Amino acid sequence: MMSQQSPELVLKRRPFGSWLLGPADQSAQRLRVRLQILMTTFSIGTNLIGALVVFVLAVFVLPGPSLVDQLQLVDAIVIPAYFVVAVAVGCVWSTRLTRRETHWIDLGRPASRREQIATLQLPLRLTLIEVLLWLLAAVFFTVMTLILQPENALRVALTVVDGTIITCSVSYLLTEFALRPVAARALVDSPPPRRLLAAGLKARMVFFWAVGSGVPVAGLMLAAVLALIEGDVTSTRLSVVILALGIVALGNGCLLTWLSAKSVVAPVRSVRDALSLIGEGRLDVSIPVFDGTELGSLQAGFNRMTEGLRERERIRDVFGRYVGPGVVQEALSSDSLGGEERYAAVLFVDLVGSTELAAERPPAEVVQLLNRFFAIVVSEVDRQGGFVNKFAGDAALAIFGAPAELADPAGSALAAGRELARRLAEELPEATAGIGVTAGVVVAGTVGDVRRHEYTVIGDPVNEAARLSELAKTAPGRLVASMSAVAESAPAEAANWRPGDEVTVRGRSTPTHLAVPHRP
């Protein structure tokens, strides 16, 4: 048993519902060739089958005087000749009309609104060409029968008219199928015009039900009427007539129903396959809009939805780059100002001699240096579960434990500080930075105005971390923490630190017991 193809593969290989229509990105020349082959094949095939069915019904099935005995040499020549001429005229006429209404494809430009409407109306206009040729055949052969065999004129006329309705209905569906790639190019990034939706999906379903069921049943009723008129039709003959017409009715109804269902299922299936990819997180999905009914509006609506999802994801990503993914989630789940008390750890890192760097180096070189510096900071903070809350010139403030809770915020901040000091010394030797780490209760939340929010943390630990980073600029290893943070950290991390001096930093009245790593 063949495995079911993935939705991505289906959309890539059969974007219009069938491999016969080719890929969505085929060139204009290949599209022209493919369209010509399909439309010529469909036109010849449907008209040939329709003509054979009408001929068999009129000559051998329907009750009445036998046409076989009355066929003349002129009939054997005229009937095939008309068929060949009509098919040739129809193919040339249809090709010229199609090229004229879709010339914008060869020009390599989008279709205008008028050209969109003309393209979507093209299947109907092409079908009307066949209707005209079939009606001419009905008039021509009816007149010819009136002259040669008057008693069979009604039978020939009604049979050809029935054949016209059935054959042209099938031809319309096949033409619409072949023109899907053209319709998709006409409707790219645009829904079907509303004026075409007046006779949309409902009208199409009703019409094809009538053609697929009503016309064949009318044919059976016609056979009964002809049998009553003739009066001498045997039961065997009538049984053959009913059986033959029943086979035609079943075949025609099945074919029309199948083609009509395919025309409905194809756009719905494209949306279904694309939705499967959206469910897997693939937002780079778009589907060709190739239907002129409400189903085309469904396809266009799906594309607008995915475009909105991509835009939302892009905004979310950009927003997250500025404030951090945790803050994005907090902002999306709550739109209120204010904050809450949290136990959090704070890491403050500040470059040493940034003023001299700016004075001695070109601005572009200073920016490159800052970017390298901040890349290391963000990398280590993210790796330990914190987030960089602020970039302030040549300094950065990182928070551990808010907005996302951590099992050991103090230990995470201390580990980040140690690894950050090591990486800065190894990867950025041309610039040094002081790193201060502390922990305590802070108020974390959004501040500002309803028109402009900012997520921040406020409290004594923030000020203390900034002052400790100033002390660290002259300390071995350029890293200083508070013993209160070490005491609150897990034993595995606390083992990497040892007590230092007690210092009253600027802006605080109580002394801070310092801690430094064992190996600076």
Describe the model.
The chain is of the alpha+beta class. It is 63% helix and 13% strand. The protein has 18 helices and eight strands. A hairpin with a 2-residue loop joins strand 2 (387-392) and strand 3. The longest helix is centred in the middle third of the chain and has 45 residues, at 235-279. The radius of gyration is 40 Å and the shape is rod-shaped. The mean pLDDT is 81.
Notable traits:
520 residues, alpha+beta
Write a brief caption for the model.
This protein is 63% helix and 13% strand.
Terminal residue distance: 66 Å
Question: How confident overall, as mean pLDDT?
Answer: 81
Number of helices: 18
Order of helices and strands: HHHHHHHHHHHHEHHEEHEEHEHHEE
**Could you tell me the strand content as a percent range?**
5-15%
Counting DSSP E segments of at least 2 residues, the number of strands comes to 8
Q: What are the low-pLDDT stretches, counting only 5+ consecutive residues below 50?
A: none
Largest sheet: 8 strands, mixed
Roughly what percent helix? 55-70%
Class computed from helices, strands and strand pairing:
alpha+beta
Please give the radius of gyration in angstroms: 40 Å
**C-alpha geometry:** rod-shaped
How would you summarize the topology of this molecule?
Elements: H1 7-13, H2 28-61, H3 73-101, H4 103-107, H5 113-120, H6 122-148, H7 153-178, H8 180-186, H9 201-230, H10 235-279, H11 294-323, H12 325-333, E1 338-351, H13 354-360, H14 363-383, E2 387-392, E3 395-400, H15 409-427, E4 433-449, E5 452-458, H16 460-472, E6 479-482, H17 483-488, H18 491-494, E7 497-503, E8 512-517
Parallel strand pairs: 4-6
Antiparallel strand pairs: 1-3, 1-4, 2-3, 4-5, 6-8, 7-8
Helix pairs in contact: 1-10, 2-3, 2-7, 3-6, 6-7, 7-9, 7-10, 9-10, 10-11, 11-12, 14-15
